[in-house]
Design brief:
Layout lengths: L7 H10 L1 H14 L10 E5 L2 H17 L3 E5 L13 E6 L5 H12 L4 E5 L2 H9 L4 E3 L10 H11 L9 H18 L5 H9 L3 E7 L3 H14 L5 E5 L6 H7 L2 H4 L2 E8 L4 H17 L2 E7 L4 H23 L7 H10 L27
Parallel strand pairs: 1-2, 1-3, 3-4, 4-5, 6-7, 6-8, 8-9
């Protein structure tokens, strides 16, 4: 008897296709509870892990390019030093049970920082509601990485007051553009499938300029979780001060085992574009497989959303090539089962960097 075919691939493709609608739903929900103008701060700290953190990372590229707001993304239970009443802390946990985010929630409360929770439920939502902390609720029952539309849209909605003008119409235009492309990206011979074919069995390196670094990370993590294979991401122009030396010294036989995806935006600075061309020439000389991925839209937000959709579909085609189910992430489940969840510290515990400092033992009384 043959085993029934898993529904995982079909479900993940349906979720990828739903990105535009999820973005709009999340944006409108976030805008409804966005801080009032007189509550604005110059610093927002977003705490999250995995698929929850990447949504804040993606938002950061837009926020810091177009607003005076500093958006810090923290993948740790320990808050940065200086977090207090003049900082706003976003606690982003899709499940609501991520122990690192729960500890950060408690620490932000002790620091008397304004807080907002972005979650589908869990302990984090319960604690937020019991303490009167605003909650941006997102739909439950999704793999966290597939909730990127709801989470990213929600964060951009929450931070909409910091932009010179509302992004509502802009978000709707960008979502519509992505909606038109989803069918193209889902085609077996479309752009996403072609990217997967060019990557093949090679180790993929994903490179992007600084403002789109989170997009390169998203591609990398989607390759790892959906296609169950390692990937690498790096930042332009930083890599021209280190990684390029490694590439220059790599033997052709080794370089041929790697694929480099260059995520390039039409709005890049001319010198950055020129550096990309130099890198491409070097990589081709070395025999690496180079895949140019143009993010050609003039609007930074549209380029970002389109890049998310293209990368998600490419990772699903890579999963097809490896004949793996993109849905389960058994290694993460085993890890959580093995280590358990540390208890949330008491309300009297230390805040920020102090949490990591060991205390000096007191001399024993004689």
């Amino acid at each position: 008897m043959s085993r029934p075919r898993s529904a995982g691939p079909a479900r993940m493709r349906a979720l990828a296709a739903g990105l535009p609608g999820a973005l709009l739903t999340g944006f409108h929900a976030g805008a409804e509870i966005a801080p009032a103008a007189n509550e604005k701060t110059g610093r927002v700290v977003a705490v999250g892990m995995g698929g929850s953190a990447i949504a804040a990372d993606l938002a950061r590229g837009i926020v810091e390019s177009e607003t005076p707001l500093a958006l810090d993304v923290v993948r740790s239970p320990t808050l940065p030093r200086g977090v207090g009443p003049r900082s706003h802390v976003l606690l982003v946990s899709y499940s609501g049970n991520t122990w690192e985010t729960l500890q950060a929630f408690a620490a932000a409360g002790r620091a008397r920082a304004p807080r907002t929770v972005v979650s589908s439920g869990g302990v984090l939502t319960e604690r937020a509601r019991s303490e009167g902390v605003p909650v941006l609720a997102v739909p439950p029952g999704l793999p966290p990485r597939s909730a990127v539309g709801d989470l990213l849209g929600g964060i951009l909605g929450l931070l909409d007051p910091w932009f010179p003008e509302s992004n509502e119409a802009r978000m709707e235009r960008a979502a519509e553009q992505v909606r038109r492309r989803v069918a193209l990206y889902a085609r077996p011979r479309g752009p996403a499938a072609q990217i997967a074919e060019k990557v093949g069995a090679r180790l993929p390196f994903v490179y992007a300029e600084s403002a789109f670094l989170a997009l390169a990370r998203r591609w990398k993590t989607q390759f790892e979780e959906n296609a169950k294979r390692l990937a690498v991401f790096d930042e332009v122009p930083e890599l021209f001060h280190n990684a390029i030396v490694g590439w220059d010294a790599t033997p052709r036989r080794t370089a041929a085992e790697h694929a480099v995806l260059l995520l390039e935006w039409s709005g890049e600075a001319p010198l950055v574009r020129k550096s990309f061309r130099y890198l491409e020439h070097l990589l081709r000389q070395k025999g690496a497989s180079v895949v140019k991925v143009p993010l050609s839209e003039e609007d930074r937000l549209e380029a970002l959303l389109d890049g998310i959709s293209l990368g998600d579909h490419a990772s699903l085609f890579l999963a097809d090539r490896r004949k793996v189910d993109p849905l389960p992430v058994d290694a993460i489940v085993r890890l959580k089962s093995a280590i358990g969840s540390p208890p949330t510290p008491s309300r009297r515990g230390p805040v920020g960097g102090a949490a990591a400092r060991p205390t000096r033992p007191r001399p024993a009384k004689r």
